[in-house]
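# step 3/5: fold
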Amino acid sequence: MRTSSYKLLGTQVDALSILDLNLLIEECIGKNKKWIIANHNLHSLYLFHNAPKMQSFYAKAEYTHIDGMPLVFIGKLLGFPMKREQRVTYADWIWPLMAEAANKGWRVFYLGSKPGIAEQGASILRQRFPGLQITCAHGYINRDKDSQENLATLSAINAYKPHVLMVGMGMPRQEYWISENLEHIHTNTILTSGACMDYVAGAIPTPPRWMGKMGLEWLYRLFLT
């Protein structure tokens, strides 16, 4: 699949819609590849320019989609033909992604959130998308590479043989965990999904989607604090 890639604020981003991302996952699974599909927003850009480990992570990513309207606005100012629908957050993507997974028979493993939250979200997704194959493990583990908890987590992932692994430990913990364990993870697509399942479970209120499209989610969160 051909994609539009741009150099933006010192790093590479791919202008991808939700449909594009689902098609890339389908391609990855069909070719039996192992791809990281990462995301960039203002927070990740700051980390990218200040943490060599983040630069190493993004160098491993096959694609990096845009997760923040400010990046779309900046891209447009630089003359790039970016569109609003090429800003994709997991609050929006999770629903069509799970619909596609249920339809195509993809196995999904979600690693992240506090104990109980991910399973609560997964239960909601299973009810909404009959036939969805999804299992979870919480992200509050000892992330040292050789710790018993980490090894047990890797064993659980690999035993499930997921087509899609979603890692939602928050940035940059999820990126570091993926980088440090990549060679031991047996899956096709690895996604950095942040607080995705917390939104699904209702543990974190989801901003109104019109605010998301306008790039005003920060304002919604400000009112909640």
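# step 4/5: annotate
The mean pLDDT is 93.
# step 5/5: archive (pending)
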